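Usage example:
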Amino acid sequence: MPKQAKPDQQPDGCEDILMSLHDLALRFRGQTNDVIDRISLTVKRGEVLCVVGESGCGKSVTAMALMGLLPTEFAKISSGILGIQATRLDLSKVTMPTAMRGNDIAMIFQEPMTSLNPSFTIGNQIIEAILQHSAGSRTDAQARALHMLQRVGIANPEQRLSEFPHQLSGGMRQRVMIAMALANDPKILIADEPTTALDVTIQAQILDLIRDLSDETGMGTIMITHDLGVVAEIADTVAVMYGGQVVERGAVAEVFNDPQHPYTIGLMSAMPQLDKPGGKLATVPGTVPSVANMPEGCRFRTRCVFATQRCQVRPPLSNTTQGHDVACHYAPIEANLSVAL
Amino acid sequence: MTDDIILDAVDLVKNFGDASSWLSRAPVVQAVSGVSLQVRRGETFAIVGESGCGKSTLARALMRLLAPTSGKVLFDGNDISDTRGADLRKLRKDMQFIFQDPFSSLNPRMSVGKLVGEPLEVHAPELSAQQRRDRVADLLRRVGLRAEYAGRYPHEFSGGQRQRIGIARALASGPKLIIGDEPVSALDVSVQAQVINLLGDLSRDMGLTLVIIAHDLAVIRHMSDRVAVMYLGQIVESGPTAQVYDSPRHPYTQALLASIPVMGSTPGRDKTTVLGEMPSPAAPPQGCRFHTRCPHAQAICKTDRPALEGDTSDGHQVACHFWDSLASAAPLPNPQPKTKAAEARFALYRAAVEGGTVKHNTEQ
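Running the assembly step on the lines above writes:
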């Protein structure tokens, strides 16, 4: 398999890069194909990066690998360099030290009910997270917990501290999760589908909150989502994933106004639009193959209407315009092919 | 569209926890409180609302899967609110249900042929086994599956395919009305589009009436002819979909539409337009139920419940004391235009998906 150069990877230290992930590849034990096939991501100070894709594209596995949450008996990371500011970790050799997890990089999950412990109060759980990482007293931690709850917009924070998760609504629980994740001022927040379980009015509130906090603190955010609308709402940059590969990435306005990869175009065509109701939606034919059946080369080729033999070789992620990369042999497609009805 | 009403709900109420027994002191949950609506034959009618607003309960009450606490439901002119036994079974032939979760709504131990054939055994017992197999094959082809799949089991299929099996099963008895409770919300975007297209084709080709319950506003805009917006067990606005979306009158509808994240809209502005969260249906607020979250609420909203009313000419109705002064022009965010090249790309993609021949200019 040819090894690609990453033409847009700038040397470290440029432009406030907070976190970089280089060439992550991993497979589950017993599989013959990589679930994540050499992906690279960077996050700058204050940037919200959305990783978007459908179920099974590997977006959550990527997040878990970043956090060092994949048990080694199930998953084998064969390559991947994680850089957080000055620290370099070779993920294939070491897992993230516990001291970094939560302190440098924190994570919130989709289902706030199952990620909070039902038998401890909210206050207890936030204070525990704080005391894990600081030498301060319990009183200090309590004050910090109260401050965090205020910051994420919870009314009556004093009272909430002594309440249990079941006494809160879904939106409030997600706010508590955010308060807990941010209690130690992490440099990077990973949010795995944080609003998927919430109603649209509550989702809007939570997205606003994450955006505001990242502007305020300068933390970098990696948001995993399947919803292109959410991406448009919150992201600065977006990486579109399919079958464990990043097929397109760039500034969100670039990618949405000038999408290049057939998968991105297919996804966008398949979304019902508010301003163009009725009619038939153009779909992406077929379904995502299982990891065992992933094709060689461009993994989208079995569902791609434009694919040829050439697609059996993986196309490199290459620049179209500054900071907008696409992995397709035929990009830009309007110049390279035509369709006769 | 005719004014031929197929389903008519009159002041429908469904409470849970009514039958106060000495064992339970749980509060009465007013899931649906006084809903009236009419579904016309052949149309796609959507009910939209957030979780806990009572939309699924309403769907089940409309189908007589639940007996209403009070009020009635007329299907084809007959009151079905207390139909039971053999009559209810006969009614099921004409009304079918598509469920949200294609993983838990199919019996894993039944083959697809058996699953789709089961309604035929009940509703068309006169068919021979061979005729039934032929019908099942037809139905599978109808929903875009291969006839050979009849011998397989649900676990062998993806989510989208399972939802197609669920649809084939619903179609088997030849119903006049199908109610779908979030029929596409468990599916990925690309597969969701396939199922939306299928439902659109079926309703057009077979003259089916569809009632779609959903929370995804873009899906509803795409699929439905008329829409009702529910909040805490009541309909706050209803009317032709285009009108409700283009000029929403109720502050709740306006907030819902403003909260939708839209591709290509300018990011970074504050969209939060409703305050806080929905109160519990066990203790709904007095007056207008939305007043606790409404940015425009005034004294009267706390005491008087506004009636659902409006222009009878176009059927756009709203339950708000102040809708006249609040009605906004067009809150839909305008998506940024795509580049010319991107437009060309989308056109190419659509042409190729619809079966065009792709010709590559570059050498292989």
